[in-house]
Every structure is written in C-alpha cells, then in structure tokens.
Specification:
The protein is of the alpha/beta class and 646 residues long. It folds into four domains: 175 residues, Rossmann fold; 67 residues, Helicase, Ruva Protein, domain 3; 169 residues, Zinc Finger, Delta Prime, domain 3 (Up-down Bundle), CATH 1.20.272.10; 78 residues, Alpha-Beta Plaits, CATH 3.30.70. Helix content is 48%, strand content 10%. The chain contains 30 helices and 13 strands. A five-stranded parallel beta sheet has the order 2-3-4-1-5, with helices on one face. Strands 6-8-7 form a three-stranded mixed beta sheet. Helix 12 packs parallel to helix 15 and helix 25 packs antiparallel against helix 26. The chain binds zinc ion (ZN). Zinc ion (ZN) binds next to helix 4.
C-alpha cells in the first residue's frame, strides 16, 4: 500500500474518535439509536475540523449491516467490519455518493443527481449523498435540489458540508438539520498529534507538537498536514524521525515567540534602537516583513486576550508556556495600549501587501508602536498627571534616555502596571464643588499622592497666555498642551487612537425636559453635574467647569471658565462630557441648552526666574515627573507656585 497522508490514515472511523465535536456526535448518535433520521443535514464550520469525516461515519452507521444493539454493534457506532462499513471506509460504497460541489455545482449535475436519487439504493438501506463544499452549488441547482428535499424518497439522505452555511439558500436550510462544528481546541489537537507520533514511531519534543497544534489553528487536518511535512524533513535518529521545535519553526518560516516577547519589551521600554536592531537580525535571517507582521499580530492578539481573560482563558488556544508568555507581555501594557498596538501591527500587515519597500514599512510600523506608547489619552493627560495615574504611561517612554545611558532594559521586566484607574484625587475635594474629604484621604493612602503633597505646584506652559489657573489647593496641575504633543498624533496617523476617548458625536439638541417639582438652581446643578462628570471619568472637565462661573436663566445655562483657551475647553469638555452634562441637566429639569465659554482674565504667567538653591521651585523643576512633562509637551516651566505658602 502506498504512502497515505496522516490526515487520511488517521481519519476517525467512529464518532468517539472525532476530536472536539462532542455536541455534534452526541446528537447524531442519539438520533441513530432512536431511529430519528432526517433527510437533510448541513454540517458547517472551518476547514479540516471533521465535517466530511462525520458525514462518512453517519453514512457508515446508517448502512451498517449490523443492527444497533446487536452483539456486533452494541452502540450506534458503525461496526466497522461489515462489508458496507468497509466499503464506505474505502470510498467505494455504491450507495454512498460523495460529490465535490466545487466542481459539480451546475444545474445539469444536480438534475442528474436528483433523477438518480429517485431509484432505490442498489444494496443498502439508504442512498446517501455527501455534498462537499455545498455552498458552491448554484442557485438554479439548489432549486432543482429543493424539490427532492421537499418530498424526499424514504431512502434518500443528503448531507451537505460547507464552510459558508449562510450561502446555502434559506429554503434548503430550513429543510435540513444544521450542525455547526467547533474549531478543534488546541489541547484536543495536541493529544491527537501525540497519539499519532507514538503510532508513527516519531520522536517528538512536546514543544514541537505544540507548535504544530498551534499552527493548525483549530483545524486538525492543517495540523496533520504540517506534521506530514515535518516528518518528511526530519532528521533520523536510531531509525526514528525526530521532530524538534527549531526544525518545525524553520519549516513554517516562523520566528520563536520569545523574539516577539523581546520586541514588545523594547516597545514598552521605548527602545527604538533596540527594536530596529532586533528587526534587522530577523530580516537578515531571511524572514519576510510580511510574515513577521503576521506573526506579531498573532502574538499581540494573544497578549490582548490574556489581558482580557487571564491566563486560563478559552480565547487562548496555545500551550501553557505560550500562555505564560502572553501574560508576561500583557503585563507590560494596558488594555488600551495592547488594542492600539494590535491595530497598528494589523494595519502595517495590510499595508505591506501593496508596498515595494516592505522592510521600511515594517520598521515604520514598529516605530509607531513606540510612539503610540507616548500618546496619552487627552483625558488622562489633563487629569491623570496630577494624581500620578498619568505617570503610569509616561513612566515607560522615559526609558529611552535611561536605556541610552545604560545597556540594561529598565522597563522591560514584566512589572504589573496598575490599570488606568481614575485619578485618586477627586477634583471635587479641592476645587469648590462642595465639601469633599477625598483629597486628604487619598493623598495619604497612596505614595504618589504623598509625594505630591509635599511637592510644590508646578504650572507649565507651552504657549504664553494659554495657561489655566491652578484651582485652589490642587497640589500639582499640568495645564499645558504642547503643540508638539498634538501635532505628533496627527503626523503618526494615530489620532483616532489618541482621541478615541471622545469619538461620540454630541447628540442633537434635545427639547428641554419638563421640569418636575422645584426649579433647579445653580447650587443644586453644580454638584450634580460635577459628580456626574467625575463618575463618568471626566474629572478634568468637572474641575474646569467647577472653577467657572455659572449663570442660569429660564432658557439656558452658561458656564464661563476664566483663563482657559477655547481649544483647551473643547478638548476637556469634549462631546462625551457634553453629553453627560446634557443628560444630567435634563434629569434635573434644567434647560437642556447650555454653553461653556472661555471667560475673561487669562492668567499672566510670571516671568521665568532662576530657582533659588534649596527652594521648592528648584525641587519641583528637578522632579522627574516635571522633567518628563516638559519633554512630552515640549514646553518650559514658567512658574512654580508653592501652594503651601498660601
Ligand atoms: Zn458495519
């Protein structure tokens, strides 16, 4: 007997041997034992997951010579030894007709099939048609088939296997039982590969089989095809082929995931040079930019899933080592960062297909990853820096300098970062929204806040006359947006990522809600709007509005915020914040119309004076947070206000 590929040689012959489709086999076996057989079945799902295999087992079971419950066949499983079973297995049973619908899809073929179906089976109980790739059948041909399905002869059974069940007409689908097959789980594939390796007398590293299983990507057949190839090219030892993970990676042109882990560590640490050097090594080793981008997107996807679902999530169909790796990488980034990184890499991968200079585009894509780390959501930028939450992000991009000075990778060690928590200091505690003990409490509860409390306030400015006054008693407030920071976002084509926090369009102006009860006053509106904003994560908007003066008349609410430019206002009180304000006003029966305008009285910045030695100003300027903020905003510190002296 000639060589048989593994997928055929080890094709399951019993329901029990089919991996990962228990929901299908259980139902089918029940139907068989109760003799409730439908005339049409649709088996749908990805390629290589057992659709035609199960169709054949059903055919075998239906036409098996031995009755269910007989000594030769105690269960609905086919006996596997009678003439009929053997013929189906060998593919030459007269009454089991397999048709590749990809090539026999026309009306003539289907008419022929329909006509032949009228005649009784030649020998066995049923005449069974297995239509592979059934979605390829033309509409006219389906119509020809429909008649047979509407009034099927008792002996005819159709089984349609398809990867695209939605492309089978509803009229057909509604006359069939539909079974949706699952992607085969990593563990199921791995178990099967281990069994086969043993039976084939192949020595295989566990990691090598794990790679094959992963490459199968839910398809048993794909995994087995690569295994075939791997065995064919494997070196022999003591007369047995030996599968190693290195060899399999080479075969697939795959890069070990450790490489991507390292690349992303470099991204997290902001080490552009390191990143480019690693990439250079990979490209020089013959890996194509396109394949690298594809593998990296896969790796990032797994890291994101690990972030979302934890190490044991079903979303990760990889070995336990790789799970641990995905978790390590996930710890380097926030969920938003991982999402953005994946987006960038996917887009880079898309772009590569149309480019001449693939390598440059991949380099550009990877550098974008680093740059994206430096982009802070505006919201966080405005409110987070003060409370220390913002520095969570800026902490990593500060690494390039450190990296340039020392060869180690400081931020590369997987240190769990806190999630994008809301600022620990409520702006209401300190900015006139009402009495709020939150600032004192949170300040003493977190070390970052502790440090801030003892630090003097710093006021930074990118452009003169665009400064915002520090609200009273707020310890540190960065209030400048460097043109650099925003310009940056647009040149790297990442504005949607950076500003994704506020994409929601402002809803159309709604009619004023009917006021119920007492008319709202500014005293009741201010705290309510303020808390609504804070609860929705718009702390800085709340803070800005809290510092403004509110004017309420019967038709509208006008909030004047002094010392703030229009641009700054629209960035802070963005569409999402506006929506929250509007809803809150509506809820309270206030006029739905409101406007936020810049008020009079821009704060004049004090001229820069050299800091006195040992002064609070000097300490503030030397503070790494301040230094980092200067870098982000491309701005200078104009004045330092020590609020403790007030
Ligand atoms: Zn049989």
């Amino acid at each position: 007997m000639g060589y048989q590929v593994l997928a055929r040689k080890y094709r399951p012959q019993r329901f029990a041997d089919v991996a990962g489709q228990d929901h299908v086999t259980r139902t089918l076996m029940n139907a068989l034992s109760q003799n409730r057989i439908a005339h049409g079945y649709i088996f749908s799902g990805h390629r290589g997951i057992g659709k035609t295999t199960i169709a054949r087992i059903v055919a075998m079971a239906l036409n098996c010579r031995n009755a269910v419950g007989s000594p030769e066949r105690p269960t609905p499983e086919p006996c596997g030894v009678c003439d009929s079973c053997i013929e189906v297995r060998q593919g030459n049973a007269v009454d089991v007709i397999e048709i590749d619908a990809a090539t026999n899809r026309g009306i003539d073929e289907i008419r022929e099939l329909r006509d032949a179906a009228r005649y009784s089976p030649a020998r066995d109980r049923y005449k069974i048609y297995i239509l592979d790739e059934a979605h390829q059948i033309t509409e006219a041909a389906f119509n020809a088939l429909l008649k047979t399905l509407e009034e099927p002869p008792a002996h005819v059974i159709f089984m349609m296997a398809t990867t695209e069940p939605e492309n089978i007409p509803q009229t057909i689908r509604s006359r069939c039982q539909h079974f949706s097959f699952h992607a085969v789980k990593f563990d199921d594939i791995l178990t099967q590969l281990k069994t086969i390796a043993e039976q084939e007398q192949v020595t295989a590293e566990e990691a090598a089989l794990a790679l094959l299983a992963e490459a199968g990507d839910g398809s048993m057949r794909d995994a087995l095809s690569i295994m075939d190839q791997a065995i064919a090219s494997a070196p022999m030892e003591d007369g047995r082929p030996v599968l190693s993970s290195a060899q399999i990676r080479e075969l697939m042109g795959a890069v070990p995931n450790a490489v991507f882990e390292r690349l992303l560590e470099a991204v997290a640490a902001g080490q552009s040079a390191e990143l480019m050097e690693q990439l250079n090594l990979l490209v020089n080793a013959g890996h194509s930019p396109s394949s690298l981008a594809r593998q990296m997107s896969r790796y990032l996807r797994n890291a994101l899933m690990a972030k979302l679902g934890g190490e044991q999530t079903e979303l990760l169909q990889i070995s336990s080592d790789e799970r641990a790796r995905a978790v390590r990488t996930a710890l380097l980034f926030t969920e938003e960062e991982l999402t953005r990184n994946l987006q960038i890499v996917l887009r880079t991968f898309d772009d590569l297909n149309y480019r001449q200079e693939q390598r440059f585009h991949l380099e550009l894509g990877l550098i974008k990853l680093i740059h994206a780390q430096r982009l802070l959501p505006i919201e966080e930028l405005l409110s987070g820096v003060a409370s220390g939450a913002g520095m969570r992000n800026t902490g990593t991009p500060s690494a390039p300098r450190a990296a340039a000075a020392s060869p180690q990778r400081p931020a590369a060690t997987p240190v769990a970062k806190p999630g994008p928590a809301a600022p620990s200091i409520s702006p209401f505690g300190s900015s006139g929204w009402g009495s709020g003990p939150s600032m004192k409490q949170s300040a003493s509860s977190s070390p970052v806040a502790e440090m801030e409390r003892s630090a003097p306030a710093v006021q930074m400015q990118a452009e003169p006359s665009k400064a915002v006054p520090n609200p009273p008693r707020e310890p540190v407030a960065f209030t400048a947006i460097g043109s650099q920071a925003l310009g940056y976002a647009s040149t790297t084509n990442l504005t949607e990522g950076a500003l994704a926090m506020a994409p929601e369009p402002a809803p159309a102006k709604t009619a004023p809600a009917i006021a119920s009860g007492a008319a709202p006053t500014i005293d009741s509106l201010r705290p309510a709007v303020g808390s609504a904003l804070v609860n929705a994560g718009h702390g800085s908007a709340a803070q800005l509005l809290g510092s403004g003066s509110w004017v309420l008349d019967s038709a509208s609410l006008r909030i004047e915020v002094p010392g703030v430019g229009k641009k700054m206002l629209t960035l802070t009180v963005n569409a999402a914040a506006e929506k929250i304000i509007r809803l809150e006003l509506q809820r309270l029966g206030a006029p739905a119309r409101f406007m936020v305008v810049p008020g009079e009285g821009s704060v004049q910045a004090a001229p820069t004076a050299p800091p006195l030695a040992g002064s609070a100003q000097e300490a503030a300027l030397a503070h790494p947070m301040v230094q980092r903020a200067k870098e982000i905003f491309n701005a200078d510190v104009r004045s330092v206000v020590d609020l403790r002296q007030k």
